[in-house]
């Protein structure tokens, strides 16, 4: 019997998700023995026209990482949806927007202005900006179109499963691959990770207080957390209470509060608001003024509460008027 | 954006012990106030999850009022302090989302302050009329289409 074919593809991503496949270590040999890799841009040279020639269903599953921002990425993921039986959103960016999704806190125009004109390290005397169409030495050149907005994979195509994490840990990847090979998958739309909040598996859970005594937040950039105490007990914002577990407490063990890369627990409509509600309501402040001090000590609440999930959040992005944004 | 004929839609989360009773009193005392506020009775201002406020704004409200008992008077001892602590953090967050902080208010209204409630709704309605419609859905759709 022919081995099932799998595809890997990347969109707006950093390469870390490719790394996690390599991090399967010896297990990758089992994967390679069980499947044929039909597409993997980081490792093998397959062109768009090759994929266009596939028949629908030829490929059992595509693992797609990265958020979607370019017209080219849209074209590829739509094509993969057509040709592959299953689509797995692989990693935080495909799942909930990830770090590239933070671009939704600003606008395309501001990004281009910074990148090509304003940044102090830019030397661009002619004010050159990449164009979709240009002519160089009589050649017509084309670049993908840069959208106004960053999207999660399921905001562009139908997604069957989600593998969370930045990047997903190798054991979850291996379990997912096995489940697919053995046909033992949970209902469509499932996130292939535990449902409980990170706090429940956190080694620091014992010191997690019922009532917080935070009068103002500390930042890891300006002070060093105790290596054993619950971060919230010490006044560092930790996304653990609103974040799905299954990561292996990687950040916690590195003495970093959770930043929320696994996305919200199933009961949270919006991880950022859930956490805001939990921490703010239990902080230490009982006047309007001290509440303001507590709030203002959390620099950049949007970037902190939605570090990985802005495009998937209830409010999705910064609202600007189109005339500001054209 | 200011538009004299624009009628802002306000969602009011009113705690049943104080503010909802205050609103009731405004009604039974026949104090006139604009019909722009849709009142939702909640057990306590501390029960108003920021998610409710955000959902109201997403789903078409131009403004949201959270009203509870005066500090010290909460039926559940300190629910309104929770509301008080969440509120400035929510406003800081809405700022970054590009939603004007003037669209959300937290006020203390006791059961006997019917006139204060009426005044507040009047004043908030005028404030929102000046700000203009939020129109979240339409504006976000325009921003998210791929062109
Ligand atoms: S808040 Fe953070 S440090 Fe504390 S128990 Fe939860 S995950 Fe662990
Ligand atoms: S601790 Fe939080 S941010 Fe770190 S890997 Fe786990 S889920 Fe992701």
Describe the overall structure:
The complex is a heterodimer of chains A (326) and B (147). With 326 residues, chain A is of the alpha/beta class. Chain A folds into three domains: 5-99 and 149-182, NADH:ubiquinone oxidoreductase-like, 20kDa subunit (Rossmann fold, 3-Layer(aba) Sandwich), CATH 3.40.50; 103-147, no CATH class; 198-305, no CATH class. Chain A has twelve helices and nine strands. Chain A has helices spanning 16-22, 27-34, 48-52, 71-83, 92-96, 108-118, 170-181, 231-234, 250-253, 271-282, 288-296, 301-305; strands at 5-10, 36-39, 59-65, 68-70, 84-90, 133-136, 139-142, 146-151, 161-163. In chain A, the strands form three sheets. A five-stranded parallel sheet of chain A has the order 2-1-3-5-9, with helices on both faces. In chain A, strands 4-8 form a two-stranded antiparallel sheet. The radius of gyration of chain A is 22 Å and the shape is globular. Chain A starts with a strand and ends in a 21-residue tail after the last helix. The model of chain A has no long low-confidence stretch (mean pLDDT 92). Chain B is α/β, with parallel strands linked by helices and 147 residues long. Chain B has helices spanning 19-28, 50-58, 79-96, 114-131, 136-144; strands spanning 10-15, 37-42, 63-68, 104-108. The longest helix of chain B is centred in the middle third of the chain and has 18 residues, at 79-96. Chain B has a four-stranded parallel sheet with strand order 2-1-3-4, sandwiched between helices. Chain B starts with 9 loop residues before the first strand and ends with a helix. Chain B has one domain: 3-Layer(aba) Sandwich (Rossmann fold), CATH 3.40.50. The model of chain B has no long low-confidence stretch (mean pLDDT 90). Chains A and B meet through strand 8, helix 10, helix 11 and helix 12 of A and helix 2, helix 3 and helix 5 of B. Bound molecules: iron/sulfur cluster (SF4) (2 copies). The site of one iron/sulfur cluster (SF4) has 13 residues of chain A, from helix 9.
């Amino acid at each position: 019997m022919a081995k099932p074919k799998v595809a890997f593809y990347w969109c707006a991503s950093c390469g870390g998700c490719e790394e996690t496949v390599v991090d399967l270590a010896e297990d990758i040999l089992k994967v390679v023995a069980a499947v044929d890799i039909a597409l993997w841009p980081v490792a093998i040279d397959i062109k768009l026209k090759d994929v266009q020639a596939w028949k629908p269903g030829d490929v059992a599953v595509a693992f797609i990482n990265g958020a979607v921002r370019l017209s080219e990425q849209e074209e590829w993921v739509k094509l993969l949806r057509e040709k592959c039986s299953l689509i797995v959103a692989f990693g935080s960016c495909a799942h909930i927007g990830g770090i590239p999704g933070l671009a939704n806190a600003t606008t395309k125009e501001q990004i281009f202005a910074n990148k090509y004109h304003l940044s102090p390290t830019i030397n661009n005397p002619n004010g050159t900006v990449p164009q979709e169409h240009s002519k160089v030495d009589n050649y017509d050149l084309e670049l993908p179109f840069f959208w106004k907005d960053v999207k999660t994979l399921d905001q562009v195509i139908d997604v069957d499963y989600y593998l969370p994490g930045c990047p997903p840990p190798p054991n979850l990847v291996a379990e997912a691959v096995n489940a697919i090979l053995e046909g033992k998958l949970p209902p469509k739309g499932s996130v292939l990770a535990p449902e409980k909040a990170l706090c429940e598996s956190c080694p620091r859970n014992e010191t997690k207080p019922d009532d917080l005594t935070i009068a103002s937040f500390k930042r890891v950039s300006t002070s060093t957390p105790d290596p054993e105490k619950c971060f919230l007990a010490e006044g560092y914002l930790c996304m653990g209470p609103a974040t799905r577990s299954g990561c292996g407490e990687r950040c916690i063990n590195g003495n970093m509060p959770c930043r929320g890369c696994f996305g919200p627990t199933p009961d949270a409509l919006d991880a950022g608001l859930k956490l805001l509600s939990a921490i703010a309501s239990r902080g230490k402040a009982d006047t309007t003024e001290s509440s303001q001090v507590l709030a203002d000590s959390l620099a950049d609440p949007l970037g902190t509460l939605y570090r990985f999930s802005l495009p998937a959040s209830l409010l999705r992005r910064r609202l600007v008027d189109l005339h500001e944004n054209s | 954006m200011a538009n004299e004929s624009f009628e802002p839609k306000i969602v009011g989360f009113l705690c049943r012990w104080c503010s909802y009773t205050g609103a009731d009193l405004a009604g039974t005392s026949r104090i006139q106030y604009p019909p722009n506020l849709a009142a939702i009775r909640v057990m306590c201002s501390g029960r108003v999850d920021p998610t409710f406020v955000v959902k109201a704004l997403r789903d078409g409200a131009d403004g949201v009022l959270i009203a509870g008992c005066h500090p010290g008077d909460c039926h559940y001892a300190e629910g309104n302090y929770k509301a008080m602590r969440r509120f400035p953090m929510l406003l800081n967050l809405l700022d970054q989302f590009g939603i004007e902080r003037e669209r959300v208010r937290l006020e203390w209204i006791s059961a006997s302050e019917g006139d204060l409630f009426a005044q507040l709704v009047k004043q908030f309605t005028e404030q929102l009329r000046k700000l203009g419609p939020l129109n979240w859905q339409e504006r976000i759709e325009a921003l998210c289409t791929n062109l």
